């Protein structure tokens, strides 16, 4: 396997060295072809997402395919501006000079993606990497095999293997890939694997983006309008069966409204997925039996107030609400990543602060309140990846909002221009004429320093 991987990687190195990817019009042409190829395979992509995760046609279009179209559109619209050499003002000490910044590709990049949004999370980083002129070796998830296969089909049709290549396999393959020397590694997945990837990257001082998980708190104060709050929480939590990195992991609710909110959430669940969600086309499935077993073990012995039905073989896990009285519950240890929503009540807002600090730094933080100023102050007082006042998950939909974690939830940002920036080295240089050479910087300094001080005071 090592030799096969080496051949693939060497081929990408030669491709990058050939400077083919430097041609911006070539990048544009390929991104256009990518869009066409995705359009032509839309049905197959949706079928694959349905087989892997039970995603409905509507959900897979909204959360996977449309997202990718937008990213391609933004890249195509802006790539010429993004790649243009930019002039900046020169510094006094360098007078006279012309100073520039140019966005250059890092070179050969490795992308490792997870199974939960297997299409979007593989293609979106790739769009920015290609727009910036990097080669891409993509290792998609071994758990969402149908989507991984269609990814390979589409990408191999559009790109030469030297530019973009999909390598299939599990942790062993991904781990071996990380042992090679890369110019950039973009990893999306769990915190534990993220640490392994970062350690391997450190050997060659390779820059990394780590898009990891987190336990995302969602706070609801007594002023929140309960109907719309319930609607937005249910949508953010139970889309893709809770297998969303920025889904609210648990609720912290003012005890004054807790039971009313729970009733609204129950109503909303029935409105969305019916009395028996296993029969609903709109409700997805858990990725595999291993994850089903993990989720089932989490609710054992807990106070289930809604749901709790599971069918391991069918990978069906009913939307489930659990009341929690203390943080020692095993539900409150790690990221749940499934359709189980723990609900914790509070009397004093000081307790909210303690809970949020315990799970610092989450990938997302949400607050529902009518008091927008309070909501702003709240969000601005904690470190977290991204978040929202009076909604969940939707910040991901604005390409002008950089997406990524901080601390435990990751490092680096992408989406829209941020993806292009992630995969670009902003190289500065300046240019000077030879006909003039002001003596200011050369010793002996004598009075030059006084002159310099008076000059600096004036500007
Ligand atoms: P995972 O970490 O198990 O696997 C992710 C990828 O890493 C897979 O392709 C896998 O083959 C590969 N991998 C496994 N072992 C490896 C190793 N030793 N070295 C290198 N690569 C290795 O994660 P998952 O179960 O596929 O995805 C779920 C996790 O991903 C959750 O924690 C979720 O929060 C997180 N996630 C984060 C984001 C984000 O944008 N921040 C998005 C989606 C998912």
Short précis:
It contains 15 helices and 18 strands. The chain is of the alpha/beta class and 459 residues long.
The residue-averaged pLDDT reads 97
Radius of gyration: 25 Å
Distance between the termini: 62 Å
Compounds present? nicotinamide-adenine-dinucleotide
Structural class: alpha/beta
Describe the structure.
It is globular, with a radius of gyration of 25 Å. It is built from 15 helices and 18 strands. The model has no long low-confidence stretch (mean pLDDT 97). The protein is 42% helix and 18% strand. The chain is an alpha/beta fold. It folds into two domains: 2-212 and 409-426, Aldehyde Dehydrogenase, Chain A, domain 1 (3-Layer(aba) Sandwich), CATH 3.40.605; 217-403, Aldehyde Dehydrogenase, Chain A, domain 2. Helix 2 (24-40) runs antiparallel to helix 4 (57-83), helix 3 crosses helix 4 (57-83) and helix 4 runs parallel beside helix 5 (120-131). Strands 10-13-14-9-8-15-16 form a seven-stranded mixed beta sheet, sandwiched between helices. Strands 5-4-3-6-7-17 form a six-stranded mixed beta sheet, sandwiched between helices. It has a three-stranded antiparallel beta sheet with strand order 1-2-18. The protein has helices at residues 2-17, 24-40, 42-53, 57-83, 120-131, 145-158, 171-179, 191-203, 226-238, 258-273, 289-299, 349-358, 372-379, 417-422, 448-458; strands spanning 86-88, 98-105, 108-112, 135-139, 164-166, 184-188, 208-211, 217-220, 250-254, 303-306, 310-311, 316-317, 320-324, 340-346, 364-368, 386-389, 410-411, 424-431. The structure holds nicotinamide-adenine-dinucleotide. Nicotinamide-adenine-dinucleotide is lined by residues 112-116, 121, 139, 141-142, 170-171, 174-175, 178, 188-190, 193, 196-197, 211-213, 245, 335, 337, 363, 405, 410.
